[in-house]
Specification:
It is a single chain. The chain has 4 helices and 5 strands. By secondary structure, it is an alpha+beta fold. Its EC number is 2.1.1.-.
Length: 131
């Protein structure tokens, strides 16, 4: 894609700080560094987001997440990791090229906050709609 910043990074047109690369994907440090080591794992083939990927492409992407994630945890002594993947603007996607955020966690107040809110939905009705 001509205007995709991640495609330009993959093509070497824009510099990045790579931590991993193979024939299918590239991983580089996020310029925002929400926490130390915050890394983006990006497939080289352009797709808008995970929901648009073919199953085999998604498999190639997610097969490397544990390896790259463990390198981050071990390199920085992180106590945990958030793995975040946003699809579409409503969900927080700002770059429309599939990517996964690996966010090493050091403490509850280390700069990243995710909050889940409980609701009282009818779970059986939801499951029936999905099926």
């Amino acid at each position: 894609m001509d205007n995709c910043i991640f495609c330009k990074i993959i093509a070497g047109e824009i510099p990045s700080t790579k931590v991993y690369e193979d024939e299918h994907l590239i991983a580089f440090l996020d310029i925002t560094q929400t926490t130390k080591g915050h890394t983006l794992v990006v497939p080289k083939k352009h797709t808008r987001n995970l929901l648009a990927m073919a199953p085999e492409e998604a498999s190639q992407l997610f097969a490397k997440i544990p390896e790259i994630g463990n390198k981050l945890v071990n390199s920085f002594g992180a106590k945990g990791m958030n793995i975040l993947q946003n699809n579409e603007e409503t969900a927080g996607q700002t770059v429309f090229h599939t990517h996964v955020h690996l966010i090493p966690r050091y403490a509850e107040d280390d700069g990243f906050h995710a909050k889940f809110t409980a609701h009282t939905y009818d779970l059986r009705a939801i499951a029936e709609e999905i099926q």
